[in-house]
Prior knowledge:
The chain is mostly beta strands and 368 residues long. The chain is 4% helix and 57% strand.
Amino acid sequence: MYKWFCLFLLPLTSIAQQTSVEPYYFSIKPKAGFLAAHRGVMGHLPKEHAIGGEISFYKRFAECKKWQSAYHQPYAGVTLYGSTVGNNAILGQAFGVYGFIEFPFIESRRHVLTGKLGSGVGYITKVFDQETNPKNVAMSTHVNALICIGLQGRIRIGQKDELLYSFDLTHLSNGSYRVPNLGLNMPFIGLGYAHNFMCREKPSDSSLVHQADVRTPFFRNWKWSVIGVISSKEVFPTGGRQYPVYALSISKRKVFRAKTGMEITLDLISKQALMGYKSYVPKTQWQIFQVGGYVGYVLPLDRFHFVLGMGAYIKDRYNADNRFYHRLGMRYQFDNGLVANLTLKAHWARADYIEWGIGYTFRKNRKP
């Protein structure tokens, strides 16, 4: 239902080389953890340890592109995940597949410590049912977004072998597509093994990696983007109506250097779920119409951008949620100016809805 491929930050820089090697890896990693009851109404759910494991296939990028060099050769790949989630009777088990990227924080000859963020699709075997499973206040859909964030270390024990250790958090949620949707948060500790089963030499394009950042004055070279958003949202009581969401985001965006960008956005939102808020009060479309101002950080990875920021409602007559909102997700910028958007809009730790969108960046290829 929801496919996420999010990326994260804090790599180190390195020096480009004329010839690069891209190692490919296979790893297996058992994990043990627990279900974190992040809301008081979930206190009855944690009953057992969460036990699971991951099988991953990935590679380490060579420094053949400017962004790969700037981020010190990140790792990227795909993981198959499965685990219990702390209560087999009510919640069942979780399975999923997600893409991930890891950025090296610290690296020596025998040890690498990376920051990891992955996102994909998860499946929960048991969900809320008013008659057969009413105590499951966390999950109402079998298919959910899966996010994994954490630290992972690699200790080299040979030319092609590594021991792995990790501390991470696995999260599953449907983004308020259906309620209840408190979500699952599971901290894990993992110990595993990785094998480098193939390396191939790949000539790098030195013209890409040796280019210096072109810096311009702060107020120059901002680009306009317009993104149309559509989504849906269910509100309590459970099993109620599914409301559509329509929105338009008008942004000015600038990438300052290899790892830093910024956007300023005017959000125009028609969230039909507000019609159900205090339903005894008559409402018009103009009265539920929301206007917000948003400022966000952009982490550019070539055409792929990770975005994170905070906004506030300028017009919000009913104030059904918090005055402030947050946005987390990613966008893909095509060469022809089109933009694909997949972000989560939330009020602090409570999901509002997932923003599926497509838009256009004007004068994308204009040089500074």
